[in-house]
Fold this sequence. Notes:
By secondary structure, this protein is an alpha+beta fold. It contains 14 helices and 20 strands.
Amino acid sequence: MQSEQATVLVVDDTPENIDVLRGILKGRYKIKVAINGLQALKLCICDQPPDLILLDVMMPGMDGYEVCQKLKADPRSEAIPVIFVTAKNETRDEVRGFEVGGVDYISKPVTPAVVLARVATHLKLRSAYRFIRETFGRYLSEEIVNALVDTPHGLKLGGEKRKVTIMMADLRGFTSIGERLPAETVVEMINIFLATMTDVIQEHQGTIDEFIGDAILVIFGAPLQRPDDSLRAIRCAIDMQVAMKEVNRQFRQRGHPEVEMGVGLHTGEVIVGNIGSHKRSKYGVVGRVVNTASRIESYTIGGQILISESTLADCGAELRIDGKMKVMPKGISHEMTIYDVGGIIDDETTQLPEKSDEALTGIEPPLPVRIMQLKEKHGSDAFPGWILRAGRRNMHIVAEQPCADFTNLRISLTGDLQAQGNDTTFYAKVTGQITDKPITFQAHVTSIPGDLATWLRQTGAKHKADIT
């Protein structure tokens, strides 16, 4: 069906030659005709360009070789296969045709069966090429698709050691959101998020290695390595945080809750290449750098970009650092310093809003809650606590048990609000210690039902009801 619907452009300045080719192709393909190179170029950049070109060499003004060169130099026509059909049958003529971008060479006088076979073959090849680009282009970066199409040896298993910058981006608290929403809503939200972020990542020439639910693993430095890989990764992370405004705009438009994203970056040596078996493989990275980037990302709160010392040293730019912290990630044998990036100094286009302390409103009496510490997706026994102060995303909590910095919490309000059948559970991350006695800490809310968030904001100091 593809061949029957294909359009073939015949380019020749001799009417008899055009009639011969038209007679051979008639009934199998749609046929367009150009009698010189200029007409051919115009027909190839119109709204309905041909699928294949049969091109004469000896024409007045612009010969076929020059026409082919111009076609291949224009992104709008470079993918159209060109078959030379000419009386120039010397070996050097054929070589010249392939050098300028032709895919085949037919000598005049033509044999109908040869013309039909060559045309059918190259239309099938172009259809396969389109399929590869359109199908795999949805999952892989442009660079990897090019490697698959242009360098078949790139499909071999194996890899090489290379310095790269790994980015891990993840929606904070999205798992808990997914527990409360229909499956189709969750999928729609993830697709909006991934589509928006994919555009930003590709703009910065990052290679998307994998989508992991609502998380994205990105490589800067493979398959192509550039001198500014780590700096581009930082620029990309900043633009991704800015793009979250558009993501949440679309969410609000569809009646979905707003979300926040955390990004972690780490630079180091990995093994990069085709990994797997001869039956199934993928282009990816293996190494501690990937795990470390994921660990760094796990320390983020919404809207935050955390980078390692190695990324800071490698980026070659002066960054606006909004804070730093020493951490001991699981699986890492030494303490690490990670940095909270707010922008690139001297570049106004890559800046996040300045961070400021959020004003918290005292709640009287304090709201009683049950707190569960989450570690590796498993929860501990719940224990009592009370919300003393609350803002849009931060709150101060006093509790009966200590909660270390960066601990993820599942918090449920108790009392009358719960008895009324409302959704009173939300998720937060511990971001600092306030006092040891009583145990008081600050928590950043990572996911909260919209109705509960509104209720908490409205409660504030005006909340006088006894919900215990």
